[in-house]
Amino acid sequence: MAAEIHSRAQSRRPVLLSKVEGHQEAVSAALLIPREDGLITAGCDRTIRVWLKRDSGQYWPSIYHTMASPCSAMAYHHDSRRIFVGQDNGAIMEFLISEDFNKMNFVKTYPAHQNRVSAITFCLMSEWVISTGHDKCISWMCTRSGSMLGRHYFTSWASCLQYDHETHHAFVGDYSGQITLLKLEQNTCSVITTLKGHEGSITSLWWDPVQRLLFSGASDHSIIMWDIGGRKGRTLLLQGHHDKVQAICYIQLTRQLVSCSADGGIAVWNMDVSREEAPQWLESDSCQKCEQPFFWNIKQMWDTKTLGLRQHHCRKCGQAVCGKCSTKRSSYPIMGFEYQVRVCDSCFESIKDEDRTSLATFHEGKHNISHMSMDTSRGLMVTCGNDRIVKIWDMTPVVGCSLAAGFSSR
C-alpha cells in the first residue's frame, strides 16, 4: 500500500487549506483538535488561543488567554480536554477547556523547571505531567497533588521529549546531540542507554510504540531511525533537508515519515522499503584507494617525497579517500542520501540508475517552520513558526492516510 501511495505522491503536493494569523510574535506550538474544526496555539506573545472554524471558512479565536510569561511548549489531552502550557519562566500551567471550546478554566501551576520548558507530555494512566527544559533536566510531577515526583539532570539543555505510556520509558534529546533513554519510576529513574549519532543538537523526536522505532531530527539537517525493539543497534540515516529538522511524525499505518525543516521544507519519506545502513567512516593515514598519504602523515610524505592530500569519505562504502579517487557525486536513496553526496569512483560505477530513484517527496511550506503536528485520522497537518503564521494542510495527496483510515480526501 505504501509503495503505491508513494508513487502517486511523486506528482502530488500538500494542499494549503487555511492560514491563521493573529499572534504578535513567534508561534511556539499549534495543535489540531481531534474530531473538531479547530486548533490550539501558544505563542511567544504570552497568549494561548483556541481557534474554531466559522461558516465563512475562516478560523476565529474563541479563547484568548494571556499568560505571565512567553509560551514555549504545549500538550493537549482531548478526552479529558486538559491543556498543559509550558513557559519561558519554567512553569507549566494546566487548564480545562469547555465542551464547546469557548471557555478555559485554570486548574493549577506546576513549578517544573528553573528555565524555559522545551517539551511536555501528559500521561493519564499515571496522572503525570512530564517535561524537559533548558535547566538541563527532565521532571515528572503528579497532576493530582501538583507535587514534584522526580528530576534527572543532563549535561546540556534538554530540547525534546517522547514517552512510552505503557513502559514508562522516556526519550530525551539534548543540545549536545545525544538521546538518553530513561525508565521513570514513582520517585526515581534509571538511565537505560544513550544514543549517539547526530553531529548537531537534537531538535525533534518521535516514538512509535507499535514498531518500537524512534526517529530523531537534528540541527545537522539529518534524521536517524533507531530500531529500539528490533535488530539491536540498527540505525538508518535520512538526509534530504537543507536546514535543521524541526519536527517529525511517523504514520504507522502507511509506513511514512513526515518531517519539516526551518527553511519551510516538508518531506514525506517512504519507510516501507528495505533500506541500507550508512557505513561507519573508516580511519586511515592514507587514501584507501591509491594509498597516497594524507597531509598529517608526515612519515609517508617524507619517505615518498609527496605532498599530503586532504581526507574525504565515500558515503556508500565509508572508506577514507582522497579527492582524486572521489571525483563523482551521486544520490543513493536506499541509504538515505536523497541529494548528491561524495562517493568514491568505484562506488559511483556500482550505482545503477534505478538506485537513484527517490524514496521521498519534497515540498515547500513557504514559511518558517519551528513546530508541526498531524491529525493522521484526517490527513491534516498544522505548521507554525517565527513568521507568526499558522498553516493548516491537507496531506492526503502525499501520504494517503485518510484514504487508508476510511476518510475521503477533502
Q: What features would you describe in this structure?
A:
- The chain has 410 residues and is mostly beta strands.
- Helices cover 7% and strands 47% of the residues.
- It is globular, with a radius of gyration of 23 Å.
- It starts with a helix and ends in a 6-residue tail after the last helix.
- Strands 1-32-31-30 form a four-stranded antiparallel sheet, with no helix packed on it.
- The chain has helices at 2-9, 298-304, 345-350, 396-399, 401-404, and strands spanning 15-21, 27-32, 38-43, 47-53, 59-66, 71-77, 82-87, 92-97, 104-110, 117-123, 128-133, 137-142, 148-153, 158-164, 169-174, 178-184, 189-196, 202-208, 213-218, 222-227, 235-239, 245-251, 256-261, 265-270, 312-313, 320-321, 328-332, 337-343, 360-364, 371-375, 380-384, 389-394.
- Residues 281-352 form the FYVE-type domain.
- InterPro entries: WD40/YVTN_repeat-like_dom_sf, WD40_PAC1, WD40_repeat_CS, WD40_repeat_dom_sf, WD40_rpt, WDFY1/WDFY2, WDFY1_FYVE, Znf_FYVE.
- GO terms for molecular function: zinc ion binding.
